[in-house]
Specification:
It is a single chain. By secondary structure, the chain is mainly beta. It is built from two helices and 36 strands. Keywords: Repeat, WD repeat. Pfam families: WD40. It comes from Helianthus annuus. This is Putative WD40/YVTN repeat-like-containing domain-containing protein.
Amino acid sequence: MSSSSTTNHHNAAGQPPPPGLKTHFKTPEGGYKLKCEKSHPPGFLHYAHGKSTTQVTLAHLKDKPTPSEPSSSSSSSSLGVGSGVRSAAAKFLGGNSSKTLGFVGGNGGSKSLSGTTKLGLSSTSHSNSYTGNSNFDAKGTYLVFNVGDAIFISDLSTQDKDPIKSIHFSTSNPISHAFDPDARDGHDLLIGLNGGDVYSASLRLQLQDAGKKLVGAQHYNKDGCVNNSRCTSIAWVPNGDGTFVVAHADGNMYVYEKSKDGSSDPAFSVIKDPTQFSVSHARHSKNPIARWHICQGSINNIAFSSDGAYLATVGRDGYLRVFDFKTEQLVCGGKSYYGALLCCSWSMDGKYILTGGEDDLVQIWSMEERKIVAWGEGHSSWVSGVAFDSYWSAPNNDDTGEHVVYRFGSVGQDTQLLLWDLERDEIVVPLRRAPGGSPTFSSGSQSAHWDNNSCPVGGLQPAPSMRDVPMISPLVVHRVETEPLSGLIFTPESVLTVCREGRIKVWTRPTLSETEQAV
């Protein structure tokens, strides 16, 4: 295990780091260095501080169209998102989180759908430094993040700490958001509120506008007319042609098509058994088109596999559930060792799912075996964010595919970033005592030594015994913040860590020369 290295350097903002915080950490392939921080303006006063946790969505806009160019009519390929963006490509192994950058798109059309709504501006003394300069609307990568009653947009390509744009909400805090780089009509940004309301809008249009209102937005579930519980997670359906899903704190998830108008009377059937999964379709052609009753209690996070075939959900009841999205069937799932599950993420190849939660553990779930194949033990508090790193490849990779190593990361309320390597051939089952024998360790490759019963289709597994599941340890443990962390994102150039209070740190990857020297 590599720990964070010591340094006396000041951070990117010119201020010394708080006591105990380091501005770089080491990995076997080289050092990661703190490049800059992003946050809300220092004078920003927001209401209900602490009731909403900051999440970040990464959005990459290509060159804006010319004024005479109509909105793109090419086929769209939406990327599934869980408080972020799923990568559209990976270098070598399948690993990515719902917040990994790897796409191009965002056609930038500013066409508004029918039934558009403009939001009122909340009272605030903060002056927006962004003045509507069209230079901010060109090709670039942006961070969209929520703090209190506002959405902020920062330019990732600069080291400026303050955002270039703020959007304020007067009635309810924004909680979740997602970006679709291939949206047909320019509505590529989704925002879900604490009161249940959902908006779709054009990110490019927000950057063009100098005001502090959400402009040209389509309003769904207005005033919580369909469901007034918190929008806990929101995601575009990959290859879904404008279809998106919204998860709520009451255990229900709704399917929307942004081309259709909203309705105040969806006329869904009554949920007969709240303990069972069920799907109800609307009796008209308006939004939402379907309701999925997932569980009792909150759905805390959702994530699509990269091809959009499967949807993973985690909830307050501690269960990971995996659904076939097209057939609307529960495929498999399993329970945490203890407490709620808070986050989930797919590998890019769809073979593995990461989960984290209140048991302080990272679960690695195999879709092929339909069971937990490893625990990750290293956090000292709740695990609040997990992600595969699709831009990392093992230094000794021979490109044969026979020896695959997955790199992934996790963050928690213990303020720490952990990096892990998952190498199935080297997984070791924890200490166990065979009947009548002495304690032994067994190799993970000897699968007969541990539970090899796969989950039946549509079945949910109880939590396995800790002694029956291989345990892995983190490669790196690095204390990032003084406050709990809420998420992380991998990009080709960096790793982003997100503090629940609204601070984002950008850690640059090792240089090529460092990596070559480490091999």
